[in-house]
Design goal:
Blueprint (H helix, E strand, L loop, with lengths): L2 E5 L3 H13 L3 E5 L2 H11 L3 E5 L7 H9 L6 E5 L4 H9 L4 E4 L4 H20 L5 E4 L2 E4 L4 E4 L2 E2 L4 H11 L5 E3 H9 L7 H15 L7 E6 L3 E6 L4
Parallel strand pairs: 1-2, 1-3, 3-4, 4-5
Antiparallel strand pairs: 6-7, 7-8, 8-9, 10-12, 11-12
Helix pairs in contact: 1-5, 2-3, 7-8
Length: about 230
Protein backbone atom coordinates (compact mmCIF):
# COMPACT_ATOMS: atom_id res chain seq x y z
CA UNK A 1 0.00 0.00 0.00
CA UNK A 2 1.26 3.46 -0.92
CA UNK A 3 0.53 6.37 1.38
CA UNK A 4 -0.11 10.08 0.93
CA UNK A 5 0.70 12.21 3.99
CA UNK A 6 -1.84 15.03 4.48
CA UNK A 7 -0.59 17.65 6.95
CA UNK A 8 -3.12 20.30 8.01
CA UNK A 9 -4.62 21.35 11.35
CA UNK A 10 -8.04 21.92 9.74
CA UNK A 11 -10.07 18.71 10.08
CA UNK A 12 -12.52 19.70 7.35
CA UNK A 13 -9.64 19.95 4.87
CA UNK A 14 -8.00 16.68 5.90
CA UNK A 15 -11.36 14.87 5.77
CA UNK A 16 -12.08 16.07 2.23
CA UNK A 17 -8.57 15.40 0.92
CA UNK A 18 -8.61 11.94 2.52
CA UNK A 19 -11.68 11.01 0.50
CA UNK A 20 -10.06 12.13 -2.75
CA UNK A 21 -6.72 10.49 -1.93
CA UNK A 22 -8.52 7.17 -1.41
CA UNK A 23 -10.23 7.59 -4.80
CA UNK A 24 -6.74 7.88 -6.31
CA UNK A 25 -5.86 4.50 -4.81
CA UNK A 26 -3.68 5.70 -1.92
CA UNK A 27 -4.05 5.39 1.84
CA UNK A 28 -4.17 8.80 3.56
CA UNK A 29 -2.15 9.55 6.71
CA UNK A 30 -3.16 12.61 8.72
CA UNK A 31 -0.86 14.97 10.64
CA UNK A 32 -2.13 18.06 12.48
CA UNK A 33 1.16 19.77 13.35
CA UNK A 34 4.68 20.05 11.99
CA UNK A 35 6.37 17.69 14.42
CA UNK A 36 3.77 14.98 13.84
CA UNK A 37 4.27 15.43 10.09
CA UNK A 38 7.98 14.66 10.39
CA UNK A 39 7.33 11.68 12.67
CA UNK A 40 4.72 10.16 10.36
CA UNK A 41 6.91 10.72 7.33
CA UNK A 42 9.72 8.75 8.99
CA UNK A 43 7.30 5.98 9.95
CA UNK A 44 5.39 5.52 6.67
CA UNK A 45 7.64 6.94 3.91
CA UNK A 46 4.68 8.16 1.83
CA UNK A 47 4.64 8.55 -1.94
CA UNK A 48 3.93 12.29 -1.57
CA UNK A 49 3.19 14.96 1.05
CA UNK A 50 0.35 17.53 0.94
CA UNK A 51 1.70 20.09 3.37
CA UNK A 52 -0.08 23.08 4.91
CA UNK A 53 2.21 26.04 5.59
CA UNK A 54 0.55 27.50 8.70
CA UNK A 55 0.67 24.65 11.24
CA UNK A 56 1.31 24.50 15.00
CA UNK A 57 4.71 23.66 16.54
CA UNK A 58 6.58 23.79 13.23
CA UNK A 59 5.39 25.49 10.06
CA UNK A 60 5.26 23.92 6.63
CA UNK A 61 8.34 25.73 5.34
CA UNK A 62 10.44 24.30 8.20
CA UNK A 63 8.99 20.83 7.66
CA UNK A 64 9.67 21.05 3.91
CA UNK A 65 13.29 22.05 4.53
CA UNK A 66 13.71 19.24 7.04
CA UNK A 67 12.28 16.49 4.81
CA UNK A 68 14.02 17.81 1.72
CA UNK A 69 17.42 17.66 3.47
CA UNK A 70 17.35 13.86 3.15
CA UNK A 71 14.48 12.92 0.83
CA UNK A 72 13.30 13.73 -2.70
CA UNK A 73 9.67 12.80 -1.98
CA UNK A 74 7.18 15.03 -3.87
CA UNK A 75 5.91 17.85 -1.61
CA UNK A 76 2.95 20.09 -2.48
CA UNK A 77 2.52 23.12 -0.22
CA UNK A 78 -1.05 24.23 0.54
CA UNK A 79 -1.65 27.60 2.15
CA UNK A 80 -3.86 30.66 2.38
CA UNK A 81 -0.87 32.91 1.60
CA UNK A 82 -0.78 33.50 -2.13
CA UNK A 83 1.78 36.27 -2.55
CA UNK A 84 4.51 35.71 -5.14
CA UNK A 85 7.20 35.89 -2.44
CA UNK A 86 5.62 33.01 -0.50
CA UNK A 87 5.26 30.88 -3.63
CA UNK A 88 8.84 31.50 -4.75
CA UNK A 89 10.22 30.78 -1.28
CA UNK A 90 8.25 27.54 -1.06
CA UNK A 91 9.52 26.34 -4.42
CA UNK A 92 13.09 27.44 -3.71
CA UNK A 93 13.27 25.41 -0.50
CA UNK A 94 12.32 22.30 -2.43
CA UNK A 95 8.54 22.08 -2.76
CA UNK A 96 7.34 20.59 -6.05
CA UNK A 97 4.18 22.68 -6.29
CA UNK A 98 2.18 25.32 -4.42
CA UNK A 99 -1.62 25.55 -4.08
CA UNK A 100 -3.47 28.51 -2.55
CA UNK A 101 -6.58 28.17 -0.38
CA UNK A 102 -9.46 28.05 -1.03
CA UNK A 103 -8.88 25.26 -3.52
CA UNK A 104 -10.76 22.56 -5.36
CA UNK A 105 -9.88 19.05 -4.14
CA UNK A 106 -9.92 17.99 -7.78
CA UNK A 107 -7.22 20.58 -8.52
CA UNK A 108 -5.09 19.22 -5.66
CA UNK A 109 -5.43 15.69 -7.04
CA UNK A 110 -4.59 16.90 -10.56
CA UNK A 111 -1.43 18.58 -9.25
CA UNK A 112 -0.57 15.44 -7.27
CA UNK A 113 -0.98 13.23 -10.34
CA UNK A 114 1.16 15.61 -12.41
CA UNK A 115 4.00 15.57 -9.86
CA UNK A 116 3.93 11.78 -9.54
CA UNK A 117 3.85 11.37 -13.34
CA UNK A 118 6.87 13.61 -13.67
CA UNK A 119 8.80 11.60 -11.09
CA UNK A 120 7.93 8.31 -12.82
CA UNK A 121 8.87 9.78 -16.20
CA UNK A 122 12.27 10.92 -14.91
CA UNK A 123 12.94 7.48 -13.46
CA UNK A 124 11.93 5.71 -16.69
CA UNK A 125 14.19 8.00 -18.74
CA UNK A 126 17.18 6.94 -16.67
CA UNK A 127 17.72 10.24 -14.92
CA UNK A 128 19.18 8.39 -11.95
CA UNK A 129 22.61 8.15 -13.64
CA UNK A 130 25.55 10.29 -12.62
CA UNK A 131 26.84 13.35 -14.44
CA UNK A 132 30.52 14.32 -14.10
CA UNK A 133 31.87 17.43 -15.80
CA UNK A 134 35.20 18.95 -14.83
CA UNK A 135 35.25 19.17 -11.00
CA UNK A 136 31.48 18.70 -10.63
CA UNK A 137 29.48 15.53 -9.95
CA UNK A 138 25.71 15.07 -9.73
CA UNK A 139 23.97 11.91 -8.53
CA UNK A 140 20.24 12.21 -9.12
CA UNK A 141 19.53 8.89 -7.45
CA UNK A 142 20.99 10.00 -4.13
CA UNK A 143 20.34 13.70 -4.81
CA UNK A 144 23.90 14.76 -4.13
CA UNK A 145 25.95 17.51 -5.76
CA UNK A 146 29.70 17.90 -5.26
CA UNK A 147 32.46 20.22 -6.48
CA UNK A 148 36.02 18.93 -6.02
CA UNK A 149 34.55 16.20 -3.84
CA UNK A 150 32.96 18.73 -1.49
CA UNK A 151 29.22 18.26 -1.06
CA UNK A 152 27.28 21.46 -1.75
CA UNK A 153 23.96 21.62 0.18
CA UNK A 154 21.55 22.19 -2.70
CA UNK A 155 17.79 21.72 -2.50
CA UNK A 156 16.03 19.05 -4.54
CA UNK A 157 14.92 21.64 -7.11
CA UNK A 158 18.42 23.10 -7.35
CA UNK A 159 19.94 19.67 -7.99
CA UNK A 160 17.30 19.00 -10.65
CA UNK A 161 18.13 22.37 -12.23
CA UNK A 162 21.84 21.52 -12.34
CA UNK A 163 21.07 18.08 -13.78
CA UNK A 164 18.84 19.55 -16.50
CA UNK A 165 21.38 22.19 -17.50
CA UNK A 166 24.53 20.04 -17.19
CA UNK A 167 22.93 17.15 -19.06
CA UNK A 168 22.64 19.54 -22.02
CA UNK A 169 25.96 21.47 -21.96
CA UNK A 170 25.98 24.75 -23.91
CA UNK A 171 22.28 24.37 -24.78
CA UNK A 172 20.25 27.51 -24.07
CA UNK A 173 17.08 26.98 -22.01
CA UNK A 174 14.46 29.71 -22.05
CA UNK A 175 12.78 30.57 -18.77
CA UNK A 176 9.63 28.88 -20.05
CA UNK A 177 11.65 25.74 -20.88
CA UNK A 178 12.90 25.59 -17.31
CA UNK A 179 9.45 26.25 -15.83
CA UNK A 180 8.04 23.37 -17.89
CA UNK A 181 10.93 20.99 -17.18
CA UNK A 182 11.32 21.65 -13.46
CA UNK A 183 7.91 22.80 -12.23
CA UNK A 184 5.67 21.09 -14.78
CA UNK A 185 3.56 22.43 -17.63
CA UNK A 186 0.60 23.10 -15.34
CA UNK A 187 2.54 25.28 -12.88
CA UNK A 188 1.15 28.81 -12.86
CA UNK A 189 4.41 30.68 -12.46
CA UNK A 190 6.40 33.27 -14.39
CA UNK A 191 9.99 34.12 -15.25
CA UNK A 192 10.60 35.71 -11.84
CA UNK A 193 10.39 32.24 -10.31
CA UNK A 194 13.23 31.01 -12.54
CA UNK A 195 15.39 34.13 -12.06
CA UNK A 196 15.06 34.02 -8.27
CA UNK A 197 15.80 30.29 -8.28
CA UNK A 198 18.96 30.68 -10.43
CA UNK A 199 20.17 33.58 -8.26
CA UNK A 200 19.94 31.46 -5.10
CA UNK A 201 21.60 28.52 -6.86
CA UNK A 202 24.52 30.62 -8.08
CA UNK A 203 25.15 32.01 -4.60
CA UNK A 204 25.67 28.45 -3.35
CA UNK A 205 27.81 27.37 -6.30
CA UNK A 206 30.12 30.34 -5.86
CA UNK A 207 31.19 29.04 -2.44
CA UNK A 208 33.65 26.79 -4.32
CA UNK A 209 35.71 27.61 -7.42
CA UNK A 210 34.57 25.98 -10.65
CA UNK A 211 36.65 27.43 -13.52
CA UNK A 212 35.70 24.64 -15.95
CA UNK A 213 31.99 25.45 -16.13
CA UNK A 214 29.40 28.04 -15.21
CA UNK A 215 25.72 28.89 -15.45
CA UNK A 216 25.61 31.67 -17.99
CA UNK A 217 22.78 34.15 -18.48
CA UNK A 218 21.68 34.63 -22.08
CA UNK A 219 20.12 38.06 -21.83
CA UNK A 220 16.53 38.25 -22.98
CA UNK A 221 16.38 34.47 -23.43
CA UNK A 222 17.35 32.34 -20.45
CA UNK A 223 20.29 30.29 -19.19
CA UNK A 224 22.79 27.65 -20.23
CA UNK A 225 25.41 25.43 -18.64
CA UNK A 226 28.62 26.66 -20.26
CA UNK A 227 31.61 24.32 -20.33
CA UNK A 228 34.88 26.26 -20.48
CA UNK A 229 37.29 23.41 -19.65
CA UNK A 230 38.04 21.72 -22.97
CA UNK A 231 40.88 19.53 -21.75
Amino acid sequence: MQYILIADDNKDITDVLSVYVKKEGYEPIIATDGLETERLYEEFHPAAVLLDVMMPLKDGYEVCRSIRSYSSVPIILITARGEDYDKIMGLDIGADDYIVKPFSPREVMARLRAVLRRIRSEESEGKSRDIRISNMAINLEEYTFTIDGKRIPLTKREIETMWTLANNPNKVFTRDNLLDSLWGYDYFGDSRTVDSHIKRLRSKLDSVEHPGWNIKTIWGVGYKFEVTDTE
